[in-house]
Amino acid sequence: MLQLEHVKKSYDGVTILEDISLDIEDGEIVSILGPSGCGKTTLLNLILGITESNGGKIIFDGEDITDVPMEKRGFNIVFQDYALFPNLNVYKNITYGLRNKPAISTKEEVDELIRLLELEPHLEKKIDQLSGGQKQRVALARTMVMKPKILLLDEPLSALDGVIKESIKDRIKTIAKEYHLTTIIVTHDPEEALTLSDRVMILNEGGISQYGKPEDIILAPANNFVKAFILNQLEIKKNNIYRLFAAQMAQTQMSQAQVQQQGMQVS
Ligand SMILES: Nc1ncnc2c1ncn2[C@@H]1O[C@H](COP(=O)(O)OP(=O)(O)OP(=O)(O)O)[C@@H](O)[C@H]1O
């Protein structure tokens, strides 16, 4: 279990995170959701260990890791831009971290991940020959072969569109469940957070606005910010889609009526 207790962070005297306390269970997918600049990436970096806090504790499996450096925490991150090596092929990118630590994953385990992420047809390709979704899957595989204790994902879907987004979402869920891997995801998109996660943490003005299951957030928003920021965005999206389909349905009904009328005129 990962626990944050009264974690604080400020930059140049400006408070970014005020008093963050939360528990994340083993194997849980948790999204950190909030508007731009609210401190989502800062919180992810504090957990990863590349940013130091100004107070509070981070505890993993009962051990205080607040002062444990990143390399010793055993967590791993997939960055927003994937940070893949363009001069290496897909297979070499995936296995890059194993060069100096080959014992971490067996060949069978690497092959299993490649299969799970459907990367077999791409292994010989260079990174610039891949689509965004394929790059994301390579970045996921490369991180997973190192068997992180916690998987951190910074805006994993923001560069992807519609169908690809849904497919990567499914892969992330499958990996988290199959490997019972605690997964923490930063996103600014309520739909993404609510459809991908077991629990969602909504950040605003340095604090946690609400932390709960997606259905709790939808059914019982804790305050006006959650209502305004999260639910309104979803409502707007829903209405836009309804409007689109309503227009399409009206068009279809009109065409059918025209066909019927033409049919009556012929007979
Ligand atoms: N190294 C730094 N030095 C000074 N200020 C920083 C630093 N890193 C982040 N900040 C500030 O901290 C605040 C939170 O930044 P952060 O990147 O965590 O937000 P975010 O919620 O991830 O935003 P976005 O969704 O736009 O990526 C911002 O006001 C940012 O300018």
TrEMBL record:
UniProt cross-references to InterPro entries, sorted A to Z: AAA+_ATPase (IPR003593), ABC_SmlMolc_Importer (IPR050093), ABC_transporter-like_ATP-bd (IPR003439), ABC_transporter-like_CS (IPR017871), P-loop_NTPase (IPR027417)
PROSITE patterns assigned to the protein according to its UniProt record, in alphabetical order: ABC_TRANSPORTER_1, ABC_TRANSPORTER_2
Enzyme Commission number: 7.6.2.9
UniProt cross-references to SMART domains, sorted A to Z: AAA
Name of the top EC class for this enzyme: translocase
GO function term, MF aspect, one: ATP hydrolysis activity
SUPFAM superfamilies: P-loop containing nucleoside triphosphate hydrolases
Pfam families reported in the protein's UniProt record: ABC_tran
Residues covered by the ABC transporter domain: 2-230
This protein's UniProt keywords: ATP-binding, Nucleotide-binding, Transport
Protein name stated in the entry: ABC-type quaternary amine transporter
Protein species of origin: Zhenpiania hominis
